[in-house]
Amino acid sequence: MVRKLWDGRFSEKTNQNVEAFTSSIDIDRHLYAFDIQGSIAHCKMLAHVGIISQEDASTLIEGLIRVRQNIEKGQYKFDDSLEDIHMHVESWLLQEVGKTAHKLHTARSRNDQVALDLRLYLRHETLEIINLLIRLRQTLVELAQKYIHVVFPGYTHLQRAQPVLFSHHLMAYYEMFTRDMERFADGLKRTNIMPLGSAALAGTTYPIDRDYTAKLLNFPKVSSNSIDSVSDRDFTMEFLSGASICMVHLSRISEEMVLWSSAEFGFIEISDAFTTGSSIMPQKKNPDVAELVRGKTGRVFGDLFAMLTVMKSLPMAYNRDMQEDKEPLFDSVNTLKACTHIYINMLPNIKIKQDTMEDATKTGFLNATDFADYLVTKGVAFRQAHEIVGKAVQYALGLKKELHQLSLKELKSFSSLVSEDIFSYLSVEKMIDRRNSYGGTSQKMVMNAIEHACNQIEMDKKKFHELA
Question: Which residues are catalytic?
Answer without folding.
Answer: 157, 278
